[in-house]
Amino acid sequence: HLLNRSLCLSPLEVSQMKDEDFSQNLILDSSTLLFTHIPAIFFVLHLVYEELKLNTLMGEGIRSLVGLLVQLARDLKLEPYVDHYYRDYPTLVRTAGQVCTIDQGKSIIFTSEPNNCSSGSMLLLIFLLNFYFKIIQKNLLFICDFVNQTNVSHHSTSVSSLAERLVVWMTNVGFTLRDLETLPFGIALPIRDAIYHCREQPASDWPEAVCLLIGRQDLSKQACEGNLPKGKSVLSSDVPSGTETEEEDDGMNDMNQEVMSLIWSEDLRVQDVRRLLQSAHPVRVNVVQYPELSDHEFIEEKENRLLQLCQRTMALPVGRGMFTLFSYHPVPTEPLPIPKLNLTGRAPPRNTTVDLNSGNIDVPPNMTSWASFHNGVAAGLKIAPASQIDSAWIVYNKPKHAELANEYAGFLMALGLNGHLTKLATLNIHDYLTKGHEMTSIGLLLGVSAAKLGTMDMSITRLLSIHIPALLPPTSTELDVPHNVQVAAVVGIGLVYQGTAHRHTAEVLLAEIGRPPGPEMEYCTDRESYSLAAGLALGMVCLGHGSNLIGMSDLNVPEQLYQYMVGGHRRFQAGMHREKHKSPSYQIKEGDTINVDVTCPGATLALAMIYLKTNNRSIADWLRAPDTMYLLDFVKPEFLLLRTLARCLILWDDILPNSKWVDSNVPQIIRENSISLSEIELPCSEDLNLETLSQAHVYIIAGACLSLGFRFAGSENLSAFNCLHKFAKDFMTYLSAPNASVTGPYNLETCLSVVLLSLAMVMAGSGNLKVLQLCRFLHMKTGGEMNYGFHLAHHMALGLLFLGGGRYSLSTSNSSIAALLCALYPHFPAHSTDNRYHLQALRHLYVLAAEPRLLVPVDVDTNMPCYALLEVTYKGTQWYEQTKEELMAPTLLPELHLLKQIKVKGPRYWELLIDLSKGTQHLKYDGVLYVKLRAGQLSYKEDPMGWQSLLAQTVANRNSEARAFKPETISAFTSDPALLSFAEYFCKPTVNMGQVCVSYVLLSCQTTMAMRRLGRREMSETSELWQIKLVLEFFSSRSHQERLQNHPKRGLFMNSEFLPVVKCTIDNTLDQWLQAGGDVCVHAYLSGQLFEESQLSMLACFLVYHSVPAPWHLPSIGLEGSTSFAELLFKFKQLKMPVRALLRLAPLLLGNPQPMVM
Q1: CA atoms within 13 A of residue 293's CA, in its CB half-sphere
Q2: pLDDT value at position 1109?
Q3: Beta-carbon count within 10 A of 1070 CB
Q4: Cα separation, 415 vs 444, whole angstroms
Q5: Does residue 712 contact residue 657 with C-beta atoms inside 8 Å?
Q6: What is the DSSP letter of 95?
Q7: Rg of the chain taking only CA atoms, in angstroms
Q8: In this structure, what DSSP letter does residue 809 have?
Q9: Which of 319, 846, 849, 1119 would give a disulfide with 795, using CB separation of 3.0 to 4.6 Å?
């Protein structure tokens, strides 16, 4: 007896009969140790059996267990269990066998019939209970709650949300794709279907494990990258060290050419920009030697020409710093390479060297000081904020030669702007400042202040206060601080206290705007830059506070600033330094009157920054341009530019991107009496000063254009671009007009430079071709009024246009507007050492307004940048409703606070929705968006029109022969080694291998990204039929059909033509068996009679497929006396038997020999 061998039990009675006459009623010894536990053992083994059925790898274990379970079920008189095992493994269960009756005299602890697992939810529950047996105690309640919620919320929750909940829950309990591979395909298919539909539209904030489960490696890598500490971006260029050739040593060899080639793929504009901004090579000096020129005069002529060209060369580093912004990750063991500032020339045709050090002409002293400083800043700004550098590396870069100190000073300032100067030890800062090198002090003070923006850091405050006499106690020792260092320290105070409205700081800065000259010989030169710095610093401290300056009402800040702007008697100097100012200046005699030429710019911009975006019309009216000729004579024309700019920044919401709005800022008297610069004869009038009117007109227009640039900075607004481009072209026309001398070439050049900067601000980072053409045209102008300052403005515009190599753009936040006002102040230096009106170091503060906005799709499989179609949804504003726009990435995004969501769409890549309300830190960090190419698709770079994709070829060819493809074709669409090997070995044309069919199957799977669907096995047991039945039930379920109706555009997980064919094939096979004598077996089974063992398998298949109830269920419904199919249908309703099965059983039950097959 099988039980004897398994449980080591001995029967009390051993029959001596022959094998064919075994007794059916043997009794085991009930006194043995395990006898009382036989029912429990059976039930445990039954549960093990059910668990093993859910693992396709345990087939042999199941077969070895079936015989024992059948024997135990017969001994325990559990015929339903025997029938259950028979239906699963008909070839392993004999119709008759030895029985040892086990009677315990009490009720069995388990149900008399095994549960019917035809329901999908029951299958899932059993699988979960068995699979997670080790954690069942703590998770049982949760699993039950999950199943209950699934059943209850079937009608209240969308199917997609149920699929998401299932996938997320499986991830939480540790379910992986490896576990899914072991499930039978009928049970795995609903789970795969949920995974497939979650893959279509996943949430961007799902954990990494969920993304891996649904096969979205792009999302998992995005989640992984977001959780890692900031490091080198995938977009960073990897340039090997030691590749310093003469051609590459221009400071721009670290740019990511791959990304820029995707952004600007149609032309060579990047190479053109690099050529315009390089300063490492000698310039070409073209001078014609006329007969009347001697050789010495010709040499002087070439050197004078070189001196003109050097004005342009020295202005290039600022623009180059913008172009290469944050593009380089330095090697900690190597010094930062700083490109050479080459001020030599080559004269054709012999290519002879022209040098300014020959002594033939007078060269301004210290001409290259600030140019070297800017060159150092540009080199330092290449360092990305996420770079791993420390104090030792900063000190390591200190040059050994004194002539390179200016470059190192700029390098220190750049480290502050990109946030690295906070790593410099305090002792090193002290050492640098005690050296007394002016440039180093300027760069260090501005750098540490920018690094501590808005923090009110006391250590930095003390450091800055040492360099500002107004912040020192009256009894402190007077230090000989250079004027430019004081200017830098004042701006540094504004940066450290930005937006804080700190009363004491604001009070001191307000007084410093109108600081009188003196005492004695102090504060007599370059006062304008100090006053401007105090005004800018005051504006930053009270940035955007408007009339809400708490605790400052007694200072009368706006009234005091207005007086600084329009003039009047100087007020009593309050504060601890009033005694100092009793000693008059020995050089300047101003008396008690405010010198508005000194104080007006700073006061005007301070008002603009304090009331920025407040739309305060009472303050804005103070800044309106004078509307009478008499009042116009009291205001310098360039101050009208600042007033117009300040007024428009206050009335932020009134700025409109059209020419009509720009012209509306011009007073009526100027509009009515403006002259056309193309006129030959000028009108004569004693009451009107045409020169004043003309200059006021162009400066007001330039101020309105500049405000337009601030308002739409980084937006690429087409209306603003067209408006500004029109005015830029107008100013270029005015420069060559007959009456240009009335306005003055210098004024026109200034206004043109301002408009060009405005245009570059709007198109920042976009590399717009029309703006590039303007910059390139102005780059070539080197004579006439084109001085160092204009070259500086033009190349700053060029740098803004390609900010960070197209990766960065400008923000319009209050802090950014303040930084841009400092950097783009519309008064440009006359020569390279000019700091009278504006400290040149402040030109680099644009970095504080730059923000990364380039969104670059990166293919997660190749880790290479690529093209992808995006749908950007804008939030609704007062100017427009919520709207959507399609963009081809890589692209510059608008400011992220204006966007609601970003969606990757299109047939080529898997869809991805980024909800920006949940955070934008990753996009702000490096702008990388990982995308995953759909199967059968090629990238936009390889297939711009989409004509070469595998899916397109499939649709175009309908016949199966054409759908077969060569094995090497699939390598273009997948890198999966398993698929490549499958195509290599099974899709090659061989004899009798059916490679066409196999190729079609692989092609179908690859084009729908469903690599694992139904297994292909020989049907030796009914378990495979069970799985097919579950698949048919799932795909015909109402929930699945509703999902297909709600999402018709979603791809089907399985070909809709395949399952009906499978169902029809099975139906025909079983019907043919039924008609060929199978009805006799079915009748014998239902009657409890014996039947031929050769028919065991087919009978079990029929019973399983048609859900035929067991014979002992039939008497309970009273089949006797049934004469019609309607009666049978009513009686079988409680057994939940399908109608299609009942149609096949009806002839047997009613005695009709003809089956009622549909």
Answers
A1: 12
A2: 82
A3: 19
A4: 9
A5: yes
A6: S
A7: 43
A8: E
A9: 319
Smallest Cα–Cα separation from 892: which of 768, 765, 717, 769?
Answer: 765
Alpha carbons within 13 angstroms on the beta-carbon side of residue 1030 total 24
For residue 1046, what are its two tokens? Answer: 């709600």
Please check whether residue 492 is in contact with residue 446, taking contact to mean a CB–CB distance below 8 angstroms: yes
Report helix, strand or coil for 918.
helix
H or E element in which residue 192 lies: helix 185-200
Classify 810 as helix, strand or coil: strand
pLDDT at position 119 is: 43
φ, ψ for residue 859 (rounded to 5)?
-65, 120
Provide the pLDDT for residue 1003. 64
Between CA 687 and CA 695, with CA 692 as vertex, the angle to 5 degrees is 150
What is the H or E stretch that residue 973 is in? none
Distance CA(50)–CA(127), nearest Å, equals 9
Write the DSSP assignment of 113-170 as a string of letters.
Answer: SPPP--SHHHHHHHHHHHHTGGGHHHHHHHHHHHHHHHHHTTTTS-HHHHHHHHHHHH
Quote the distance between the C-alpha of residue 563 and its chain's center: 48
Reported as a single tens digit per residue, the pLDDT across 347-382 is: 998 899 999 988 888 899 999 999 999 999 999 999
The set of long-range contacts for 944-953, using a CB threshold of 8 Å and a minimum separation of 24, is 946/907, 946/908, 949/908, 950/1003, 950/1006, 950/1007, 951/907, 951/1007
> d(Cα 1078, Cα 1070) in Å, to the nearest integer?
9
3-state secondary structure 665-715: CCCHHHHHHCCCCCCCCCCCCCCCCHHHHHHHHHHHHHHHHHHHHHHCCCC
Q: What's the length of the chain? A: 1158
588 Cβ partners below 8 Å, 6+ apart? Answer: 517, 518, 524
Assigned token pair, 717:
């607004």
Residues 6+ apart with CB under 8 A from 262: 856, 865, 866, 867, 890, 941
| Residue owning tokens 């698709």 | 937
Residue-wise over 62-75: b if at least 16 C-beta within 10 A, else e? beebbbbbbbbbbb
3-state secondary structure of 251: coil
Alpha-carbon distance 104 to 106, whole Å? Answer: 5
Query: What distance in Å separates the CA atoms of residue 1143 and residue 1120, rounded to the nearest whole number?
Result: 18
Task: Give the start-to-end residue ranges of the domains of the chain.
Answer: 2-101, 120-216, 452-540+551-606, 854-931, 950-1008, 1058-1150
Those residues of the chain that have pLDDT short of 70 are 1-28, 95-99, 101, 103-110, 115-161, 226-248, 572-583, 676-687, 949-976, 988-1020, 1038-1056, 1115-1123, 1131, 1133-1136, 1151-1158
Q: Which residue's structure tokens are 């994709």?
A: 949
What are the DSSP calls for 420-439, one per residue?
-GGGS-HHHHHHHHHTT-HH
Q: What is the pTM of this model?
A: 0.82
Q: How far is CA 328 from CA 240, 254, 336, 374, in A?
A: 12, 6, 10, 18
Rounded CA separation 136/366 (Å) = 81
Phi/psi for 233 (5° steps) reads: -75, 155
> Widest CA span of the chain, in angstroms?
147
Q: Cα 354 from chain centroid? A: 50
Say how far apart CA 946 and CA 163 lie, in whole Å: 32
How many whole angstroms from its chain centre is CA 836?
43
Could you tell me if 179 and 131 are in contact, meaning their C-beta atoms sit under 8 angstroms apart?
A: yes
Q: How many other C-beta atoms lie within 10 A of the C-beta of residue 1085? A: 22
The answer to whether the beta carbons of residues 234 and 858 sit under 8 Å apart is yes
* DSSP symbol at 554: G
Work out whether strand 100-101 and strand 26-27 pair parallel, antiparallel, or are unpaired.
Answer: parallel
